[in-house]
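Bench log, entry 3. Co-assembly request; chain sequences pasted below exactly as received.
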Amino acid sequence: MRLFLIAILTIVVFPNESVAMHIAEGILPFKWSIFWFILSAPFFIYGLRELKKKTSQDLSFKPLIGFITATVFIISCMPIPIPFAGSCSHPAGTAISAIILGPAISVVVALSALIIQSLFLAHGGISTLGANVFSMGVAGSFIGYFVFITARRLNLPLVVSGFLAGVFADWATYLTTIIELSAGLMGNTTFLELFNKILLAFIPVQLPLSLIEGLMTAGVVSMLYKKRPDLLIKLNILKEKEA
Amino acid sequence: MEYISEYFKRKHFLTGLDGRFKLLLAILLILMIITYEGLFFPLIIFALTLTISLYIKIPIKILLIRYCEPLFIVMVLIFIKALTDGKEPIIIINQPFITFSLFKEGLLEGLLLSVRIISATSVVILLGFIMPFTELISAFTWFKVPKVFVEVLVFSYKYIFILLEEAQVIFNAQKNRLGYSTIKKSLNSLAILSGSLILKAFEHSQNTTTAMSQRGFDGSIPLMASKAFQVREFLAVLFFMIIVVFIYKL
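Structure output for the full assembly:
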């Protein structure tokens, strides 16, 4: 009953804008901030290596990454009304970057977008950068990419694969964020108890949002297929015979 | 994009301070806030950063927008903590179908956490307003952040404004054609908007590479080097840090 009450009151009391995408500055205790930085570091280093490899082969890759980061930045700043919850939230956009650039480079893209957002929009934070990179960049990108590849191997249509990648990337991002918050804030309660409560508070906004993110990712893949199938072939997303 | 902090840069007493000092000070202050167990230090830092923000004439509307997110999070956190954490109830609400209590321990813990969040966020907010992007990049270069990452940051920041203008044009065109009049139409319009942005990103990257190659682009861009440290600035920062550490230890 108490859990249900938390979920209901969170929606009723704070109906205007839910901006819970990135963990804000100062929320996580010092040891957890460091922990998430350490956990994100190998993925970032791997992403940088991939980036260096690709930029040495193709001069246009660096400007492309700049533009994709800018797109992720804009998408993750788009306030989207959530009709069921009566509030606004925003998608992550990392599924799109993971499909186009690969999950490792998508981590670098996420970190760039997060640095600009935290410093120039106060959205996210410096001490929580590691945690935000891990949820949005690592979990979102890798799960989104894995789902997309698996769906393609199962011969699902490109648009359906894109939709599933967007939905799962969003879920992965939010589940990881909930884990990070529960671990950092549990205090006298147990991890699982707090996890359930935050999950309940997130569900009314994030469930519809994940479907919107899925539709956006499907829209991007579909538009690329219709207008520039050559790019999908170049990026190894599509085989030549499918174009 | 008039809400981005750099849009409000003005000449004031912090403009001339070296970007490396600003970045280091901000990181140190945040670390001290999140490691401090109590209300005193975070409240002092919050009061200080808010005073400086108002003194350097950051519009109050913009400051309020910046504080909206942490304030929202703070309210939810206090509420969740008060409702779940503790044994000593301070308020018990009995209604026909529901009964719930707000606990003292949870409320106090929630308040402590909230002050920490607001204080740490105020440091980041101020940093955004006093540190231009070029200074951040030159500080990153000096701190030996991998060059390829710094270059990606430079490209990204520059292209945000280009893509944002285009996103605005597409959005306005969709809105004028009732593209956001129903939920179904809104979803369709958002998917088209995202797809169009990605297509624009590809087109721009190709055109930019061609233009830059013609101007001698070999894969890396020159980054601004940091100037030498000023002794006067170093001493001022050191003095400030001594006072801050003193307050922290009180």
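Chain B has a mean pLDDT of 86. The first helix of chain B runs from residue 19 to 35.
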